[in-house]
Amino acid sequence: MLMRHDYCIPCILKMSLEIIRGVTKDEKQVKKFMGEILSLSSLKEGSSKVTAPEIVEEIWRKMQKIAKDDDPLKTIKAEQNQKALNIYPFVKEILLESNDPVLEAMRWAIAGNSIDAMLDAKKGMDGKILSLLSGTNQKYVEELKTRLEKTKKLVYFGDNCGEIVFDKLLIETFHMMYGIEVIFVTRTKPILNDATLKDALSVGLDEVATVIENGIKEPLPGTVLAKVSSAVRTHVEQADLIISKGGGNYETLSEEESLKGKITFLFQAKCYPYCSIHSVPLGALIVYNNYCE
Q1: The whole model's pTM is what?
Q2: What's the Rg (C-alpha) of the chain?
Q3: What secondary structure letter does DSSP report for 107?
Q4: What's the first-to-final CA gap in the chain, in angstroms?
Q5: In what order do the strands lie in the sheet with 181-186?
């Protein structure tokens, strides 16, 4: 379900301010940048058909010019990956001891979007981490397991750095339980802290999946099938199941008619519109199968 982008505007503005202040300490530049953002036609009333990822793409291009860098968050992305790799052995041990490794791995893969909060895991399974890993719609989880049992080829659209370490664990679990071939798709162009091919290879995702870029020429924090490479389209057509990670991919793929019947969305309810659409509390882990109506 496509969200009206006007619900996303406050978060987009807050994110833009936080990132630009990480790029430059010049407050005049910050004010000029935010003034340009506020004047964007895509943020005006009547532009509700524009998705949030498309607005972020427009903002990101301005940020790249100021930073004079195509990937101004590359240092932060590397730090996020390293933080996740630091607790990777700990989480893997939890999965090996779990009565339901698929569910457990799925929860970690979704919750991986909040990597900083997950660092509390090393201090014990209490407080933030228990709250973070709670939830998920059991009906949808069981439906997904049934689909996985019949799946030979899976296309997995990745999202953020840090999170991709836990995607790797989930894919390892799929191999162990179902013996599935996995194609992992990254962004082609750097955008925010989303994972590129280089980022995915740095955490060893190529050890558990065939890793390819989406082929989209714009820095888009989502996936538009009309823009992906022919190789990605072929993999999608051949796949028995598609997994989409994160809110940006959900925003851009949930209305794709050709995917209905074989796609599952894994993401976190980071805002109230998601909570309303899926009837979950803020911060909940969402497993949504569009074939399970």
Answers
A1: 0.90
A2: 18
A3: H
A4: 13
A5: 210-213, 181-186, 153-157, 241-245, 263-268, 285-289
**Where is 11: in which H helix or E strand?**
helix 9-23
- Encode pLDDT of 177-191 as tens digits: 999 999 999 999 999
CA distance 115 to 119: 7
DSSP 8-state symbol, 123: G
Q: Alpha helix locations (H) across 128-241?
A: 128-133, 138-149, 163-178, 197-202, 230-238
CB 147 within 8 A of CB 175: no
* Residue 150: closest CA among 174, 171, 170: 174
Least Cα distance to 180 among 146, 153, 211, 155 occurs for 153
Q: Which amino acid is at 106?
A: M
Q: Where are the domains of the chain?
A: 5-67, 74-289
Rounded to whole angstroms, the Cα distance separating 55 from 292 reads 30
**Burial class, 274, CB count within 10 angstroms (exposed 0-12 / middle 13-18 / buried 19+):** buried
pLDDT digits (tens, 9 = 90+) for 70-82: 999 999 899 999 9
The CATH T-level fold of domain 74-289 is: Rossmann fold (3.40.50)
